[in-house]
């Protein structure tokens, strides 16, 4: 089942169309990464999904329900979000902040304690939030969002500003949510290599448009995976395999990726021509490098 689906969704400000998504789907039980540079439209898309910002054109479906005024409250009960940073009262304790969430969501203390335990703040709730580290504040924001265990969690740049240890902790927390608690997650980020470590599928956004939607591995194969061979004579091997239009980079022969059976044939051809093959492997560019090539951006 699709937990989120956008159909012909546009967001228009004046004469400017800042989001134009023909179709975007997120499956139940997955972690979906919406990635792109700052200003690409990621936060705007998330705000429309959460009904913080109104859709100019098109339709949004959450849990197979069309998002409209009569279904809005019921849908929002099954959603949690953390967009543009967590909202909390710094002069209150973590426990007091969570009690406010309890009252707003009409939950009991058991549900609040469950969320606190999930994010690993059980022993930090008596501290004032102003004394929390950035990572603890982010955990508190996630606890607020998942209180009551919604079916869908929306996280905007959840690791932004964290140190490597904090990023790793938040990443592992997010990865646990679908597996242990049945919470589907949509995250946005411009830190592409970080997203790659936790998501099942990605949507690449640039200038409000969806350039790619699918798995990370499929994207890499479609946009840059190569078969790399280290041989005893790369120049001769390049000539023997001339129909592949290969290249030699840093003493490695690279040809377009081929099926397993054809890999065997390539190696056998070289061996028959007295070329020794020392190593064969897939050479795949990082997600960030592929993104820069796809969008023509000099940096993220």
Characterise the protein shown here:
- The protein has helices at residues 42-49, 72-76, 94-105, 109-119, 134-146, 164-181, 192-196, 216-222, 234-240, 260-272, 287-295; strands at residues 2-13, 16-27, 31-35, 57-62, 65-66, 79-82, 152-156, 184-189, 201-206, 209-215, 226-231, 247-249, 252-256, 277-283.
- By secondary structure, the chain is α/β, with parallel strands linked by helices.
- The chain folds into two domains: 2-215, Rossmann fold; 226-283, Alpha-Beta Plaits, CATH 3.30.70.
- It has a six-stranded mixed β-sheet with strand order 6-7-8-3-9-10, with helices on both faces.
- Helix 3 (94-105) packs across helix 4 (109-119), helix 4 crosses helix 5 (134-146) and helix 5 packs parallel to helix 6 (164-181).
- The relative contact order is 0.14.
- The model has no long low-confidence stretch (mean pLDDT 89).
């Amino acid at each position: 089942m699709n937990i989120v689906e956008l159909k012909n969704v546009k967001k228009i400000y004046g004469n400017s169309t800042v989001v134009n998504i023909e179709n975007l789907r997120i499956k139940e039980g997955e972690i979906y990464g919406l990635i792109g540079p700052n200003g690409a439209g990621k936060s705007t898309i998330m705000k429309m999904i959460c009904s913080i910002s109104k859709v100019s054109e098109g339709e949004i479906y959450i849990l197979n329900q069309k998002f409209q005024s009569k279904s809005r409250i019921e849908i929002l009960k099954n959603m949690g979000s953390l967009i543009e940073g967590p909202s909390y009262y710094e002069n209150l304790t973590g426990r007091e902040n969570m009690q406010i969430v309890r009252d707003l969501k009409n939950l009991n203390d058991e549900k609040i304690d469950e969320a606190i335990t999930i994010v690993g703040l059980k022993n930090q709730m008596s501290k004032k939030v102003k004394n929390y580290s950035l990572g603890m504040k982010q955990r508190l924001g996630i606890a607020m969002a998942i209180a009551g265990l919604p079916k869908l969690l929306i996280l905007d740049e959840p690791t932004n500003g964290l140190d490597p240890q904090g990023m790793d902790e938040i990443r592992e927390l997010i990865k646990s949510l679908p597996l242990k608690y049945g919470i589907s997650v949509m995250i946005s980020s411009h830190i592409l290599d970080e997203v790659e470590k936790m998501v099942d599928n990605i949507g690449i956004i640039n200038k409000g448009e969806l350039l790619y939607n699918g798995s990370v591995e499929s994207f890499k194969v479609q946009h840059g995976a190569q078969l790399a061979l280290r041989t005893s004579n790369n120049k001769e091997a390049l000539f023997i395999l001339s129909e592949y239009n290969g290249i030699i980079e840093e003493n490695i022969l690279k040809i377009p990726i081929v099926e397993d059976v054809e890999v065997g044939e390539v190696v056998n051809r070289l061996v028959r021509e007295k070329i020794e093959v020392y190593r064969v492997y897939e050479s795949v560019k990082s997600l960030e490098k592929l993104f820069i090539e796809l969008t023509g951006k000099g940096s993220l």
